[in-house]
Amino acid sequence: MTLATPDIQGYCPPEFAPVKDQFYKHLKQGRDIGAGLSFSVDGETAIDLWGGWTDRQRQQHWQEDTLITIFSCTKGLAALCALHLVDQGRLDLDAPVSQYWPEFRGHGKERMPVRYLLNHRAGLPGANKLLRHNTLHDLGALSGSLASMKPWWEPGSAHGYHAITMGWLVGQLVEHITGESLGRYFKREIADPLDLDIHIGLDEMHHERVAKAVLFDGIPDVHDDIVNIVKGVFTEPQKGMTLSAFANPAALGLHAFFNSAVWKNNEQPAANGMATAQSLAKLYGILANAGQDRETGKELLSPETLSLCWEEQSSGHDLILKRPTRFSNGFMLSQPGPLSSYGPGERSFGHNGLGGSLCVADPDHRTSFAYVMNKIGTYVLVDPRARALLDRFYECL
Predict the structure, then answer these.
(1) What is the tens place of the pLDDT at every residue in 233-242?
(2) Contacts of 258 (CB under 8 A, 6+ apart)
């Protein structure tokens, strides 16, 4: 395949030239179709680049305000909403979920602490009954399927990635406390005051700005982590658990990968955030700098609550991802393995998303990183494209 020559725009000072070169290399070699990349240092933008195309045919150029689905990076936004409520004294992570959500009961769940919904220890990675595709429009029905079911494992005894259900659970919790959906709460309390182009549930007026997710542009490099998850579907003792975690209801994947209006409109607070790299890096840059926005002086999180972002809550074998993982209160931490680090900062935290997107805050170096793209990769944790960009950045510091 002969590739068109990619165009890169934005800002990158000479001292960070290797980062720009790596970004261009990915586009030129076809490892990316279109992408956005942004870094901040001390709360100020240090690098802001975008380039390539928003479609498989390479007809529409990626723009400064191009949005893209960030998949599981959305979980960081959901966690931030919960921690924002903690800061306001409206949510206690050690209180039972049922204190805020009375319907969340049965099978001992009425004693489950709120933090289990954030650290993947709730035992509710998927519904234990088949969910119809039309429930995709009804987060109340989706979360209700979990509220009364028996957990797949004893809550707190192990952890397993709640790939989709974290959003249903935390979303329902936020709605019971605030009276509004998580996406609307995020917009009112976080996105609008900080002037962030980040959305959970996208207004139709912005649909034309969304780049199309592209599957199988060339021969995919299937990573061993994916193979292990597929094997787990057939060999795990809890039959159906892993399959339910990723594909119940099955319409989720169909809408996501076919770039439907339904996917853009609806709120899936673990999976369908839409954002630019610039805004994600700005948000995580605030978290990397004592929780305070340098521009406005607005405190997003207090220092005490901010520390919950890197406080390890879960580590060891993940019952869903079938590999070792580490989580804090809603965020991923650097994972075991050479490709899965979030950089040299011991307190670094963030989240990666299906396909390759990655957001990181590094309080030790007061830096943040955000990479978004539309060519879907097959790595479960840190994609090699994001890894290479992050490495070049730290080499330049």
Answers:
(1) 888 888 899 9
(2) none
The domain spans of the chain are 8-396
Question: 307-323: per-residue pLDDT in tens?
Answer: 999 999 999 999 999 99
Neighbours of 271 (CB within 10 A): 25
Check pLDDT > 50 for residue 200: yes
Q: What are 47's two structure tokens? A: 């690098």
d(CA 191, CA 185): 9
Q: Are 9 and 64 in contact (CB under 8 A)?
A: yes
Cβ atoms 165, 146 nearer than 8 A: yes
Partners of 36 in the beta sheet? 50, 372
CA distances from 222 to 206, 226, 250, 380, 381 (A): 33, 7, 21, 10, 13
Burial string for 315-349 (b: 16+ CB within 10 Å, else e) reads eeebbbbbbebbbbbbbbbbbeeeebbbbebebbb
Give just the sign of the alpha carbon dihedral 131, 320, 122, 271. Answer: negative
Q: Are strands 349-352 and 358-362 parallel, antiparallel or unpaired?
A: antiparallel
CA-wise closest residue to 28 among 51, 62, 56: 51
Amino acid at 228: N
Angle between helical axes of 139-147 and 165-178 (0-180°, round to 10): 100
pLDDT tens digits, 86-125: 999 999 999 999 999 999 999 999 999 999 999 999 999 9
Residue 258 CB neighbour total at 10 angstroms = 12
Domain 8-396 carries which CATH code?
Answer: 3.40.710.10
**Residue 337 in this model has a pLDDT that exceeds 80:** no
Give the distance, in angstroms, between the CA of residue 201 and the centroid of all CA atoms in the same chain.
14
HEC-encoded secondary structure of 50-107: EEEECCCCCCCECCCCCEEECHHHHHHHHHHHHHHHHHCCCCCCCCEHHHCCCCCCCC
In three-state secondary structure terms, 317 is: strand
Q: Which residues are CB-contacts of 333 (< 8 A; sequence separation ≥ 6)? A: 310, 312, 326, 327, 342, 348, 349
